[in-house]
């Protein structure tokens, strides 16, 4: 594993087909969450450069959209090959920049190559339709409507830090396959990984300008990009408050938002506890809980609560804590502010008499996995997304109480229900307000060809490969009026 941060690189931005320094003359330092030192610098792109990138994307998009689907697909296939060829280098960048375990980072790169290839195939297999005019009263057989999908123009792809390659490519690949130009804004912490991913794309010889990568301060270019008249669609993944802000700033363009969550694991008294414990552990603690679909609260039937908690405790205490270079499950959080935030939620719960089962230990931004029992509705941790390794357990008397608590949350990303009675599982699943309900499994985004969506404060619109292609294109109807 390469881990060389001794030579600090200043990375260029990819603007209108060229890797270059910003005219701002300013850079942003990227600090590794676990090395706790600067590992590189990225460009602070200016508003003028954003204008130029958007204009170049519009120009390039016209001829890009005229390429055949297979020609566009061939570039993307090469991109997937390039990612695989450079998986170790990119995985190292992800590990150092966002503190993800090396093996998981490598899996993220491989998963991304698979996602790109599937996106190509899905785009090749999308079909339009034709409509007969006489299908409506008074209509004529001589009227024939042809419905095709056409690009939207230039798509703005904004990604979060936690899957800096996969969540970016899951926007860029469908946008390009649908015939759009792309402006990609990575999370600041995630920029180096995003740059490495776009370097791989640029090596495919993609037409100049069709994609630009704008690194920069949210305060300087964030709102500017979102409000820009040259942007025709925004695909955003990130926190709910940023998403809400975006939806207020953007005007009259399609918006897909994948936001935060507070996914509950509902454990009924007839659950197979082996399955429940394994799924909850994996769902709640991998990558220190920094996953949108992490299990963020357990709603367990009183009858099995003590047994579940003692089994969870035993597993939590076995978790590996330390460095992503050793593939520890529990790693330092993205920054000190994030750790302070999670600590605040733990402190609030303990002040209000939650039971500390295990954890609540901290070294800088490394928080040990923390299990809290007897959490009540008065505690912040019952409702707020921690994005860290703390799991609150709330006792309930019935399925109805669990469903009511699940639905009282402002979020509605996913939920899990554990029971051995399929009718009961489906009954709970039907009533829980969430984009996806997992029966006897952990909450998770994949497989990437499934629709992925959040309801309420968890999002708007649908991702997943097929749905992303649909949301990044629109219908165009041509009507033939025959003699
Ligand atoms: N539902 C999902 O698919 C999903 C997946 C992963 C993460 N998330 C959520 O993301 C959050 C963690 O990620 P984060 O901390 O990177 O989120 P964040 O909201 O802080 O940032 C997300 C992105 O938005 C950018 N941004 C910030 N202000 C902006 C502005 N004014 N205009 C334009 N862009 C702006 C950031 O630079 C970053 O690229 C969590 O809440 C998590 O649940 C959701």
UniProtKB/TrEMBL annotation:
Keywords: NADP, Oxidoreductase. Pfam families: Aldedh. InterPro entries: Ald_DH/histidinol_DH, Ald_DH_C, Ald_DH_CS_CYS, Ald_DH_CS_GLU, Ald_DH_N, Aldehyde_DH_dom, ALDH-related_metabolic_enz. This is NADP-dependent glyceraldehyde-3-phosphate dehydrogenase. Belongs to the aldehyde dehydrogenase family. It comes from the Bacteria. The active site is at residue 258. The keyword NADP applies. GO terms for molecular function: lactaldehyde dehydrogenase (NAD+) activity. PROSITE patterns: ALDEHYDE_DEHYDR_CYS, ALDEHYDE_DEHYDR_GLU. Gene3D superfamilies: Aldehyde Dehydrogenase, Chain A, domain 1 (3.40.605.10), Aldehyde Dehydrogenase, Chain A, domain 2 (3.40.309.10). Residues 19-476 form the Aldehyde dehydrogenase domain. The keyword Nuclease does not apply.
């Amino acid at each position: 594993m390469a881990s060389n941060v001794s030579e600090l690189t200043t990375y260029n931005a990819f603007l209108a087909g060229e890797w270059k320094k910003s005219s701002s003359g300013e850079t942003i330092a990227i600090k590794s969450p676990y090395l706790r030192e600067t590992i590189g610098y990225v460009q602070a792109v200016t508003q003028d450069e954003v204008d130029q990138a958007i204009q170049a994307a519009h120009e390039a998009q016209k001829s890009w959209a005229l390429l055949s689907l297979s020609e566009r697909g061939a570039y993307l296939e090469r991109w997937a090959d390039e990612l695989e060829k450079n998986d170790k280098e990119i995985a190292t960048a992800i590990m150092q920049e966002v503190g993800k375990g090396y093996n998981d980072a490598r899996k993220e790169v491989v998963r991304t190559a698979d996602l790109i290839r599937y996106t190509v195939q899905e785009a090749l297999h999308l079909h339009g339709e034709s409509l007969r005019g006489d299908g409506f009263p008074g209509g004529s057989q001589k009227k024939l409507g042809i419905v095709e999908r056409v690009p939207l123009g230039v798509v703005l792809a904004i990604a979060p830090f936690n899957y800096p390659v996969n969540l970016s490519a899951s926007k860029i690949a469908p946008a390009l396959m649908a015939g759009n130009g792309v402006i990609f804004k990575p999370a600041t912490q995630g920029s180096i990984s995003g740059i490495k991913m776009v370097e791989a794309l640029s090596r495919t010889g993609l037409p100049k300008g069709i994609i630009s990568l704008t690194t920069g301060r949210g305060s300087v270019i964030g709102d500017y990009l979102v409000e820009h008249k040259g942007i025709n669609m925004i695909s955003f993944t990130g926190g709910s408050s940023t998403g809400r802000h975006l939806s207020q700033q953007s005007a009259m363009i399609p918006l897909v938002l994948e936001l935060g969550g507070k996914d509950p694991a509902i454990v009924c008294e007839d659950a197979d506890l082996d399955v429940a414990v394994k799924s909850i552990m994996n769902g709640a603690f991998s990558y220190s809980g920094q996953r949108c679909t992490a299990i963020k609260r357990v709603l367990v039937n009183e009858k099995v609560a003590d047994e579940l908690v003692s089994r969870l405790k035993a597993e939590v205490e076995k978790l590996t804590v330390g460095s992503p270079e050793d593939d520890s499950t529990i790693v330092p959080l993205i920054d000190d502010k994030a750790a302070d935030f999670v600590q605040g939620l733990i402190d609030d719960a303990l002040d209000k008499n939650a039971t500390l089962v295990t954890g609540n230990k901290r070294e800088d931004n490394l928080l040990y996995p923390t299990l809290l029992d007897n959490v009540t509705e008065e505690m912040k941790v019952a409702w707020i997304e921690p994005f860290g390794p703390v799991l609150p357990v709330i006792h309930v008397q019935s399925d109805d109480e669990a469903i009511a608590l699940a639905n009282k949350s402002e979020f509605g990303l996913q939920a899990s229900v554990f029971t051995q009675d399929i009718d009961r599982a489906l009954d709970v699943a039907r009533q829980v307000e969430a984009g996806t309900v997992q029966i006897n499994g952990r909450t998770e985004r994949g497989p990437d060809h499934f629709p992925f969506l959040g309801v309420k404060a968890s999002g708007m619109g649908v991702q997943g490969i097929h749905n992303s292609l649909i949301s990044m294109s629109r219908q165009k109807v041509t009507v033939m009026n025959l003699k």
